[in-house]
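anyone seen this seq b4? input:
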Amino acid sequence: MCTANPPFSWGTSVNVPVPPGAQDTITQRPSLCFNPVGLYDLRRHLGALPQTPGIYNLYKRRFDLTDIAWFAQGSAMKNDIIQNDRFHSEFKALRDGTPSGDAGMDARSKLRSKVLDGVFDMLGLLTRGFGGTVFAIHVAGTTRPGSPKDPQYVKANVFFPDHLLCEEPHLRTVLGNMVQQFIVEVSIPTIMQYECCAAKLFKLKLTLATDLRPLMQHRDFPTASPPSSCNFIFHSCPLTATAAATAAAATTTAAADDEYLVNEYTSSQYKAILGDKERELEECHNQISELTAQVSALMGEHDDHFSDHFSTTESSISSTTAFSNPTLILNTHRPSPNVTIRLSRLQSPATPTSRRVASPFSTPSRRTPTAAASRLGPNSQKSPFPGFQNSGPSQFPHEGPSDNAGDPRSSATTEDYVTFLAEHSLSAQATAIMVIAQHVPMFSWRGVLLTVGISDKVVDELMGLMSSVFLHRT
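predicted toks r here
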């Protein structure tokens, strides 16, 4: 173990190892980054209480947690929007502040364990001090090298009050199903995205041919680790393990639903249901007409380019070639389920849907479409342009300096966006672009825009304008 080099002195005997890369001079507080060197320099700023010898060594784990919390403050309030081939700035700072190779991996792994333990300790304090219940799931961005992207190769760190499991044993099955769904729907796409970014950023080959055994499977919620704590390590199950049971349950449910629908819709209620749907559709037509009038008044000088398009918004929604197949978006990377639902509803009036019964350890059911009249949201009457809000907070608040500072596109206005569409003959696709901007994750915009026919030559500039107009309006 090496010690700090002169001229710095702790003023007392402490057990603080010097991380690789630390310098004699201490980095100033505003320039500190979250990595072992940044934590070391922060502690050198704070000192080790030399006036009370031995106190730092006695409570070192508590001091370590406070140092981490110094960097964590405000992180939950950030909502940085990054491209699908980028990592957060904190990720890069952590890697830059650790050695390469196995030494760096070991340092980051130990620091991750400290952060995870600290987060779970804070959640424990939250539940003990204020009551209530917290359920937290964390899955790392990577798996064992070469392992398939299947649930049985993924593990999750879970926080849940252990005493509730003792009081309500049935919660083990409920929580196990929730963790399984989280791994399938969220963690595996996240791992795939991580590897895609890492392959480009670090020039890594992550397709190693290996024969790894899957992790020991947990059919139920595991026991706490360590015992009687609130910490759990959950190993996921393969989807095929319950595929047969899920298929059988789905078949039985579908048959029962079909019989129910036949009995229901051959009754006198059928006409009443159709009447309700027709009224919903008429209300949507009225909303479209009002929006068309508002758009015409707003666009002013651009009426020549866009008045014809927005006066026929209703017909373009149902006839746009890019959305003639509602499943088109599903072929892109990590789409939003609501996109397909909305596209389906834009093509035809809402129709009765069958009831669905969730099965343990199966993929979660998609959300059922709401009434057609609610598609445009409560503020639709106030918006002069589909997808834009006149007032109210931004959907993506950002605290601190913007990542787009100095980018001329970050100050783009609706007028710039409209002019761009006109200059590049994209007026007919304005509705499709609006749906993509509002309901597809930003890191998937490029792939979806290319899929619906946007030229590769203009897609980057279009994405910048979409980000400014749809995401950064306040």
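Residues 268-471 form one domain. The chain has 16 helices and three strands. kinda curious what u guys think
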